[in-house]
Fold these 3 entries.
Entry 1:
Amino acid sequence: MTSAVKRVAIPKNGVDYRGKVVLAPMVRSGELPSRLLALHYGADLVWGPETIDKSMIGTTKRTNPVSSTIDYTRTPSNSSRIQGSAARESYIYRLHPARESRRLIFQIGTSSPSTAVEAAKLVAPHVAGIDVNAGCPKPFSTSGGMGAALLQKPDHLASILSALVKEVGEVFEIGISVKIRLLETAEKTEALVRKLCGTGITGLTIHCRTTPMRPRERAIRDQLQMITDVCRSEGVACVMNGDVKNRDEALQLMREFGADGAMIASAAEVNPSSFRTSEEGGLLAWREVVHEYMKIAVGVDNKWGNTKFTLSQLIPGKLEVYRDITGSKNYIEVCEALGLEQLYDQAREVDTRLGLSQCRDATAVQKAKGKNKSAQAASGRPSTERSMDNETRRSLSERGISSFNMVV
């Protein structure tokens, strides 16, 4: 008689990671418009960028009537010394409840069970799960005992997950998961995975690289089969991450290694239509992807700096339009460079709301001044001295010059 397969129950408001191809958590490339674009092209779930627990604690939560988003904002700590619009609140996290909520996983950066719980409770009603980042190797994360630093303290990491499961997962009926990296040996990795699976989590993502490895180094999949076997024996969904280029490859790798799901990172950053299957047409041309992104970005009043960064990832760097975009100051300039006339009016409205219209005016003035100064320098005298009244202007023929003798 075949024994029943063990499986951790998926909470009522949670989501099962099994059979899913998902967007990886990425700083800057995982903001709201990028997540909505990935969902548009077929991502089953999306992870938001790692958000530090202490940055969420103390934020102001508001529903934005213009973008229909839920915004978590914070006033700059030196706002008392800043006057007027310069004291504008900064966004810490944004989500769109109608378009992504039940498919959004909030990734948290933390080193403490108590602050992790406090921060997670703020966003738990609006997401399908909370994921702990235990894999980021960058100093800004590890120096605070977060990210990959947690891999060296398995008991502490397990205590964070247990607290989130009990105080957030069970209360809000959503899943809790964790994203880790490979350890130095397969034995250490196996021991860690077993410990974490015993905390009550519903999912575990394994980034198939060790902490010292960088994205340019090829992912290591030697331990993947072992990890998926351990997760399956504990009833926890296992998602693989590392050098997954598109949905077709993701599904093939899931079958090969027995993974329950796969996560796409860098490939989706460059072209999120990588979530489309070959039967659906596969990758789309960059221009079509960028146009779709711009519609979403202006629709949610996305932060200008993030929009500009994302466009720099989506547009090939050798194109002339790439230089136009990197030199742009606001949404209307981008729309003009891309020929998106249908977005002109909306772009101007967004620029006004974000205070970017002044940038356009200032740029125009500077360009005009620059041209005037260049003309003056070329002549060696003020431009007023070079102007002529209509009465003093003479045609070429009057000056004895034939137009046929001009070089063109």
Entry 2:
Amino acid sequence: MENTKTVSILLLGDPGCGKSTLISRLSQGQNAPKGSGPLPKLHDLDQPFIFEISMYNRPYRFEFYDTACPENYTLLQPNFVILCFDVTDRRSLINVPRVWRKDVTRHYKKDGDDPPLMMLGLKRDARVEEEGVIYPQEGYRIAQEMRCDRYAECSALTGELVREVFEDIARTAAKTTTDAGGLTQGGCIVM
């Protein structure tokens, strides 16, 4: 369709934090297996992973990029960035502000602003109540400190909250095509 708005969405985060599994789960749409059934393997050469949807009576084309190859992702100019971490791995959470947030500022700042940011905790199903566990409140606090526009958690493996996360991603991505853009007017919204 000629009126289709295209939005590029970049997922940044440590290797193994669940980014590819999330995209694989999203690629299944409503046909995704329930629980921890097998998900399709994704290949870097298949990027971008494209999702065409209709929202607000308009067609959108969301192009998701994974960060498997640093040489390639630094050349992108995404409209929306999702900072991902594994909720069972503290190092993964620490690297969001120390590594990935800094990369956003270094590579993607436009007209003095970063693109809209979302912080996404993955592997929610694997969270175990023990010393050092990363609770949603801690992730949300860090998202606020980094001035992210959104914070959410899900389990791509089991599908828990994936639909809600995708809806939130879609709403924010769609807003990037408007004059107001996808940045919030301050504060982080938890979903």
Entry 3:
Amino acid sequence: MREELCLSKENQAAAESVAESRGLQLAEHKAQVAALSESLADAERRVYEGELVRRKLHNIIQELKGNIRVFCRVRPVSAAEQASPDHDSDLCLDFPISGDLLGHGLTVSVPGNLTGQATAKHNFSYDKVFGPTAGQEVVFEEICELVQSALDGHKVCIFAYGQTGSGKTYTMLGSKECPGMIPRAMTQIFDSSRKLAETQGWAFTMQASMMEVYNEEYKDLLAKKARAGTEPKKHTVLHDTTSGTTTVTDLTCVDVSKPERVAALLAEAMEKRSVGCTALAEQSSRSHMVFTLKIDGHNAGTDVRVAGVLNLIDLAGSERVKDSGAVGDRMKEAQAINKSLSALGDVIMALANKDKHVPYRNSKLTYLLQPCLGGDAKTLMFVNVAPTREFAQESLCSMRFAAKVNACEINPRKSVNVKA
């Protein structure tokens, strides 16, 4: 009996010792968990603060570069231009090979209109100049920071401007083998938003819409075909000055979550876009196409919200009516196109001059984009030009317009102050 009692006491002492040891281990583990939790919270706080600094620095860099920028892109000479004697395929553009204007300047040589009249040379400089050999990936690398600004909660407009047949639609849409700015922008947006969701707890919702402005009328390029005998829906643009948002009545807005969905929408829209044949191009865009991506982001951990807008716009081709051979409906289209492009220039100049009245309402295009022009919005214009003497005069007109835009400064940043 005594032996059993001693054994029992020994077992109890051993159990108490094990329990005490485990209690100490548990307390130590709890302390480690608490320390790790504190370290994780501190790391998450530093990541959040770092992201705030990144966004602020990124925005400052974009503003220092200019809230409105102009890039010039020169297309290659086409095979048809090289093969046909009907085309004057001699080059009219020269690029600096050294100095400060390398990659920023070019010279256009315009033949005289009269016999014996000397060729006139005109020099231009822009924020960036892409020669005929520059690929889509090189061009997009220069605008990807602006695309990031939209994901950070800013309003961004990227235009493609230029004469008919100068490569605007190729720049914006590209081909399956060489995607343009719109598909590349979508890939970047979705990739970046996914990384932010995985690493920082952001959740994004995105809606895409596509419109065209044709003969000063809005047209929904994603709308279902109207029933026979019914009129297409009329669209009205409504601006909320308090929230800075824009809505368009009866406009089709599609939730998108991956680039492939956007690619399908682009294909659908392009089938409905207004095109026509002129003396300058067999397939000439007769409308301004506006692709809009609205981005709403929310971080549940910090309760921070962002709302950005990315507008990617393929403008109708600028052209002089006498050269395009336009008559009838084509004449009406050309007049509407030129009027709206002129109105766009007037708006940009009024913003740069800080005029009290900015004539947004002079064009359906500028009125639609009103909240995304001026203020803290970021605007970039591609001026697309053809390289040959056949189109030298049209290229000169395009580059003169772009030079006026490039001379504008909208809300330039005067001081830089960044705090973590």
